[in-house]
Amino acid sequence: MTKKIGIAIAQVGGIGKDETRTEVVERLIGLLEQAAKRQAALVVFPELTLTTFFPRYWFDSETEAESYFEASMPNADVQPLFDRAKELGIGFYLGYAERTESGQRFNASILVDRSGEIIGKYRKVHLPGHKDFVENQPNQHLEKRYFEVGDLGFGVFDFDGIKIGMCLCNDRRWPEVYRVLALQGADLVLLGYNTPDSVPGWQEEPHAKMFSHLLSLQAGAYQNSVWVAAAGKSGFEDEHHLIGGSALVAPSGEVVAKAFTEGDEIIFGEVDIDMCRMYQESVFNFAAHRRPEEYGLIVSRTGRGEPLPVPAT
Ligand code: ING
Fold first, then answer.
1. Which of 167, 203, 283, 291 is deepest in the core (most CB within 10 A)?
2. Pocket test for ligand 1, best of 170, 197, 216 (most atoms within 8 A of CB)
3. In this model, does residue 1 exceed pLDDT 60?
4. Whole-structure pTM value
5. Residue 252 pLDDT > 70, yes or no?
6. SS3 285
7. Is the pLDDT of residue 127 over 70?
8. In whole angstroms, how large is the CA radius of gyration of the chain?
9. CB under 6 Å to ligand 1: residues?
10. Which of 143, 169, 265, 276 is catalytic?
11. Catalytic annotation on 47?
12. Of the residues 173, 211, 215, 246, which should be mutated to test ligand 1's pocket, given the most ligand atoms within 8 Å of the CB?
């Protein structure tokens, strides 16, 4: 029996530094309503969807940094989103800055089912950027300063009988992420992202930034026979630009839906999970074709090193 699910990807245009969570949540509910009109079962929101992309700023005061984090999830600010989603019977993926009771800080995402329950959580593992202030830059990229490395691994969760994995932004550039999720049976990977034009140390031309973003999604989808749904926080946040390009990618690696604008925009796709099976049972039949005994370096070595000795023939 074909398993299909309507996926809405909610690209969110820039969120200003002074925009309140109430104002942001109203925008997210507007996108949720649009998704409901398309009979979506699930909406994907971006990474750090409740505030501006604050890792671009250096804060001298801890208090100001703290103001960007959620001390609980849900909370009074986001409850209206949870309530409306439940009324509409729509699940969602939401990225946000998490502060735990013990004071740990993570770049996190949750998966909420159609009855409004949180059924999955993820904390970002690949933190890009830097920890200390970098001089002479139009903006910082201080994820290594504001967040700890995620400690929940890469989880796969059951949503309406579909195995869904989550990741966040820079994670999408690392092939290991999709592979670990696919090895757990994921058929659909959801991710949110904020990709600034300027990241200290990363200078690419605009077209190349969009190319590497889409390439990462398409490679991850094709090489692991999964659908990938990516929602960007896009456009201008104050004077800082983030790329758009929210997209839905099929297990064939083809982009089947892509955002046209850099603003609030819903893109929609009818995801046919059975499409994964053809690839999973042929070219990427992991059990039949993978040779983990030859892949040891992928886990044992972190950075680039010397060639391994090749057995004499
Ligand atoms: N943003 C960027 C991303 O991976 C980045 C950071 C881009 C780092 C390009 C290096 C090169 O899309 C987040 N939030 O990870």
1. 167
2. 170
3. no
4. 0.97
5. yes
6. coil
7. yes
8. 19
9. 128, 169-170, 173, 193-195, 199, 202
10. 169
11. yes
12. 173
Mutate to test the pocket of ligand 1, among 123, 130, 169 (most ligand atoms within 8 A of CB): 169
Tokens found for residue 109? 């995402």
What is the per-residue pLDDT for 116? 97
CA–CA separation, 123 and 112 (whole Å):
15
Q: How far is the CA of 1 from the centre of ligand 1 (A)?
A: 39
Q: Provide the token pair at 244.
A: 């758009």
Q: Cα(24) to centroid of ligand 1, in Å?
A: 23
The helix or strand, by DSSP H or E, that contains position 223, with its residue range, turns out to be helix 206-224
Q: What is the pLDDT of residues 182-240, one digit of tens each?
A: 999 999 999 999 999 999 988 889 999 999 999 999 999 999 999 999 999 999 999 99
What's the average model confidence in pLDDT over 266-273?
97
Is residue 56 within 8 A of residue 240, CB to CB? The reply is: yes
How many C-beta atoms lie closer than 10 Å to residue 231's C-beta?
31
Ligand 1, atom 8: closest residue by C-alpha: 128
Per-residue pLDDT at 62? 83
- Which residues, at least 6 apart from 311, have a Cβ–Cβ distance to it below 8 Å? none
Amino acid found at 165: G
Alpha carbon nearest to ligand 1 atom 3, residue: 170
Between the CA of 129 and the centroid of ligand 1 the distance, in Å, is: 7
CA gap 128, 256 in Å, rounded: 28
Rounded Cα distance, 153 and 158, in Å = 16
Closest CA to 267 of 232, 225, 242, 243: 232
Per the residue annotation, which of 98, 124, 209, 262 is the catalytic one?
Answer: 124
Q: Which domains does the chain show, CATH number per domain?
A: 4-300 (3.60.110.10)
Amino acid in the structure at residue 19:
E
pLDDT in the model for residue 189: 99
Quote the pLDDT of residue 61.
86
Q: What is the DSSP letter of 305?
A: -
From ligand 1's centre to the CA of 99, what distance in Å? Answer: 22
